[in-house]
Amino acid sequence: MAQTSGFELGTEGLRLTRRALLVRTGAAAGAAALGGVFAEGRRAFAQEQGFPGVASGMRVISRSPINLETPIPQLRTWITPDDWFFVRLHLPGYAQLNRDTWQMTVDGEVGQPLRLGWAEVQRFQRVELTAWLQCAGNRRGHFEPKAAGGQWDRGAVGNARWAGIRLRDVILSTAPTLKAHHVAFEGNDPHGDAPPYVRSVPIEKALDPNTLLVFEMNGQPLPVLHGFPVRALVPGWVGSANVKWIRSIHVLDQEWTGPYMKDLYRINLVPMNPANKTFNFAQDFVATTVFPVNSFFTSPTTGATLPAGPTVLSGVAYAGETTIAAVEVSVDGGAWQPARITTPGTAYAWYQWAFSATLARGSHTLAVRATDSRGRTQPREALWNPQGYFYNAWDVVTVQVS
Ligand code: MTE
């Protein structure tokens, strides 16, 4: 099966540059290289956007490729409306597919390759799952020193009700061979001479009953920018694994070796010095997989002015493939105090929490941290990495009380 390599990608789009190739082999100085390889996130707050199926008022990180962030007030409901759900694309275009002519192939390490259309997909058992979906770069803008890529705030995450079929059922119907160790999803994005959008997951995650091929989001067919007609849903895992507009599923004996696996979405396992400018993503970093525990404020937002007296702070918490055990808030550096869980989540659906505080006049610093059911607590500082993934430090907002 043809795999594409030799390309380097910026988090805002494809760039095939000599400098990028040098970075890939670890031969270039990082500061200069990051400037050349990654486009800075373009910040704009457009009123009229004209993106299909998208509410006006989304924060535009970039227009081409389309990258849109959910404003924090739209994260205050348990289910994020699909027109307010963040959009993350890599390539300048997106797939506009006809459900009746769309087809998906399943090939590779299988005894019986498959070609499925919409009608065949509907023959598998329908399942539903409420799950959050988050981009690896969510909260990237909070890293210090800055990491390369779009400077997302907290809104590259949302929680939706999905419906579809189990990937497991599809794979098992192809009689996979004993060499079936990874499963790659290939997207239908128009990609010209650039490599296609492909991301793989290990077979254990592919066969997990909660890993789905979904065709509905919040009770409606998937919106076009979210992968109509069928996308992967790999709950708890890095957003990039949730491939949209599925064209093919490749069952493989090894991890996919294209640039979205070997150059992007890779992270260091141990702390690294941000001043270290020479690195080799393919060799020294590992593919991102399960998200660490995270939480943040949805109210108030930073810089808000509140009336003196009792007030309710609130937000969301979520944790990879496990549940949330506790959410705690600290006011002005004081002791951590337990917040109330107001909407219980699951391993895959996010939790909502609230905390009652009484704030006197002046400036206040509020912090929140969550702990998952395996006892892992959000750290004070996130693990710095050059591409700015998996930011999960305590969330801190400052407010004025008058
Ligand atoms: N699938 C395709 N085909 N093309 C893409 O660019 N982006 C991925 C993933 N699936 C992408 C894709 C990334 S990085 C993320 S975070 C999620 O889609 C975002 O899903 P959403 O845009 O539906 O919120």
Write up what this structure looks like.
- The structure is a single chain.
- Helix content is 9%, strand content 34%.
- It has 7 helices and 26 strands.
- It has helices at 18-24, 30-37, 118-122, 167-172, 203-206, 259-262, 281-284, and strands at residues 8-10, 13-15, 59-62, 67-69, 87-88, 103-108, 114-117, 126-134, 157-166, 182-187, 198-202, 212-217, 220-221, 231-233, 246-252, 266-267, 286-287, 294-299, 305-306, 309-318, 324-331, 337-338, 340-343, 351-359, 362-372, 395-401.
- α1 crosses α2.
- The longest helix has 8 residues, at 30-37.
- The chain is globular.
- The model is unreliable at 1-48 (pLDDT under 50).
- Bound molecules: ligand MTE.
- Ligand MTE is lined by residues 85-90, 133, 135, 187, 189, 197, 226, 239-240, 242-245.
